[in-house]
Design goal:
single chain; about 290 residues; alpha/beta; 6-stranded mixed β-sheet; about 10% strand
């Protein structure tokens, strides 16, 4: 099945690669020390997919990892052979109520999406049983490969390292909640959602390169401009679900990490650390001291 074949190129977490960072370069990167009195933890902004040329990672990431006892990720990273999780995602991404892509999209937008896939030898009818969020993931996978930027991300790198090192692992949310988020993208405003993605993939390579450069520089103002504000303006529904609601849901979990003998390194997509509703802004509002590592 073409949908399953495309999906296996990038698992469902690929969409979160769109929540990253951007540009200048002093001696800073996307790592912060968050303190309450003498107690502290580290929070790093990540890119979920990186080209091999982006390695080695900034030294501040390894330093924070080596200085902490526990690695905290957004959600458990599914193993490549986790067929149960892949099946759950595929099931959530497929229509089961009589709807189909050709029914929820206007004829005009459906044709635009079909024209996008045609050069890759994919007929959109083969994806007709799947939701817009799934179709967007396939577009993202194709763009990543075309730009030669599809590879391991920061989260995956440290997840593997922690398992080899026997370091404790914890998570801010369940993989099921991420599947639910992905499955419901564009629900109720399918035309607008697909048109937005068609526009954003128009110059994807340059856009993603700027994201990576910004992540390395730890420039949250530029990240806000590149990734967060466009989402807020173009798709306020997804912005609320992807950024605002999740950031607020993570805050209590992070606050509970203070007051114990464990030192944590928390890694989340860089976009969650930029803008007025970011995790860092919420922590500052709650009275914590937030310092960018350099």
């Amino acid at each position: 099945m073409i949908a399953k074949k495309l999906f296996n190129l990038r698992n469902g977490a690929a969409v979160l690669a769109m929540t990253l960072a951007t540009a200048p370069a002093l001696a800073e990167t996307s790592m912060w020390k968050v303190s309450s009195g003498n107690d502290y933890l580290y929070i790093g902004g990540t890119v979920h997919l990186l080209p091999e040329s982006a390695f080695p990672l900034p030294a501040e990431f390894d330093a924070a990892y080596n200085a902490t006892d526990m690695l905290v990720l957004e959600a458990k990273m599914p193993a490549p052979d986790d067929t149960a999780m892949q099946t759950a995602l595929m099931k959530a991404m497929a229509y089961s109520d009589g709807r189909s892509l050709s029914k929820v999209l206007s004829a005009e937008v459906y044709q635009q999406v079909a024209d996008y896939f045609a050069p890759y030898g994919v007929q959109l009818q083969q994806l007709d049983g799947y939701k817009p969020g799934f179709v967007m993931l396939q577009m993202l996978a194709l763009e990543m490969m075309k730009a030669q930027m599809a590879g391991e991300g920061v989260d995956s790198y440290f997840d593997k390292k922690a398992k080899v090192d026997g370091k404790a692992l914890a998570y801010l949310e369940s993989m099921e909640s991420q599947i639910d988020l992905l499955a419901n993208m564009g629900d109720g405003y399918e035309d607008a959602f697909m048109k937005m993605n068609l526009e954003q993939f128009g110059d994807f390579k340059a856009y993603f390169a700027a994201m990576i450069a910004a992540w390395r520089a730890g420039d949250m103002a530029e990240l806000d401009k590149l990734a967060v504000q466009p989402a807020r303006e173009l798709d306020p529904i997804l912005y609320q679900a992807l950024f605002v609601q999740r950031n607020n849901a993570w805050l209590p979990h992070i606050k509970q990490m203070f007051g114990n003998s464990t030192k944590e390194l928390v890694l989340v997509g860089g976009g969650h650390l930029a803008g007025e509703h970011s995790v860092l802004a919420l922590l500052q509002q709650a009275g914590y001291k937030v310092e960018q590592v350099n």
